[in-house]
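Retry 2 of 3 after timeout on previous attempt. Resubmitting structure tokens to design endpoint.
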């Protein structure tokens, strides 16, 4: 009965032209509880965009627990572009009061933003994103480290640590990892996370044998219909037809629902996966705990969606379920992606919810919220 109700929600969203297709996977008590799909196969490969961010956070946690990084480390220690930074103010810029730190990047309190025509920081950041896209398919694409240094030279939107804004912070962390480890970000993630977690269909590049499984992405046309999307966004090659040089820690991974469930399960199991300790138990608790103070939370955007939530280590964390716009459990955490992929872990309920689709400018879709309401109301203790 429950599966039929959830399937109907997805099928109705497809018929209503909200999404082109959808896939739902729910795990509870460390085993699969429910799966359903509409218009897509389970083994499909998806562009997960900002669901890359929690994986990047876990990669940073590996270095923090190994003593190779501190949350308080200034980013300028690793990247020259973060030296002598400036903050945008009315009529110009002023020097930073203190340097951007690794912790600022993890918690989006750095002052770095995404493109925005209404702010100096947003305009300069968009110019960098345009340069990345301009060179994306050329013989000289922007690399992960070059992109980070270019972003570092943009004006910050506020003094480091004084507020919160969603931006390219996770991309900088990928470059920091490259400097610390002396290898590409993708190589580090594959060795330390993807292979131990048996996430064989996840990566910054789609393997040749998997390209036929890469799903078509869609965008909304002027008349409201969904049409195939063929553009590139945030330095991500939509066609995934070549190796990525810019390995975006904020948006670059492709994955499958089953692969990502391995990552989510590892976090639910205090860092353990099939007997292998990927992250230490205390590290996972640190990674999945809220980090914003009252002042920073005032700018935690999208208030209709984020009432009751805090943020930390590149994920939202529910701290007051009575104020949440959806049914949830305190301590649950997760994130979503630009094309509508979504995941949520609820440690108290020992549950993971994963929803995957591919439509641009999506994020935390209404259909994903409807599914969460039904699942949490039915399955929680």
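Retry 2 succeeded. Sequence:
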């Amino acid at each position: 009965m429950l599966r039929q109700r959830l399937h109907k929600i997805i099928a109705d969203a497809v018929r209503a032209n909200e999404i082109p297709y959808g896939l739902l996977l729910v795990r509870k008590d460390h085993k699969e509880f429910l799966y359903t799909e509409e218009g897509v196969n389970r083994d499909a490969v998806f562009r997960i965009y900002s669901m890359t961010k929690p994986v990047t956070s876990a990669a940073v946690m590996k270095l923090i627990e190994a003593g190779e990084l501190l949350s308080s480390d200034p980013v300028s220690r690793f990247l020259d572009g973060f030296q002598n930074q400036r903050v945008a103010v009315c009529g110009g810029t002023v020097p930073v009061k203190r340097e951007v730190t690794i912790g600022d990047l993890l918690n989006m309190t750095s002052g770095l933003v995404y493109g925005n025509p209404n702010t100096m920081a947003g305009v300069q950041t968009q110019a960098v994103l345009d340069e990345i896209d301009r060179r994306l398919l050329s013989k000289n694409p922007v690399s992960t480290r070059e992109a980070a240094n270019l972003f570092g030279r943009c004006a910050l939107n506020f003094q480091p640590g004084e507020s919160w804004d969603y931006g390219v912070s996770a991309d900088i962390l990928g470059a920091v990892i490259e400097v610390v480890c002396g290898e590409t970000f993708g190589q580090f993630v594959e060795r330390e996370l993807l292979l131990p977690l048996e996430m064989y269909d996840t990566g910054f590049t789609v393997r040749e044998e998997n390209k036929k499984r890469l799903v078509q992405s869609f965008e909304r046309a002027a008349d409201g219909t969904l049409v195939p999307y063929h553009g590139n966004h945030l330095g991500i090659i939509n066609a995934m037809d070549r190796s990525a040089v810019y390995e975006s820690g904020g948006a670059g991974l492709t994955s499958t629902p089953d692969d990502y469930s391995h990552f989510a399960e590892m976090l639910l199991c205090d860092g353990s996966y099939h007997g292998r300790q990927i992250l230490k138990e205390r590290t996972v608790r640190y990674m999945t705990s809220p980090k914003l103070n009252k002042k920073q939370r005032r700018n935690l955007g999208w208030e209709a969606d984020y009432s009751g939530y805090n943020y930390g280590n590149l994920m939202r964390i529910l701290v007051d379920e009575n104020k949440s716009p959806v049914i949830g459990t305190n301590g649950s955490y997760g994130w979503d992606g630009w094309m509508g992929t979504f995941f949520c872990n609820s440690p108290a309920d020992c549950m993971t919810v994963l929803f995957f689709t591919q439509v641009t400018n999506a994020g935390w879709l209404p259909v994903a919220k409807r599914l969460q309401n039904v699942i949490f109301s039915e399955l929680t203790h």
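Attempt log closed. The CA atoms of residues 80 and 149 lie 7 Å apart.
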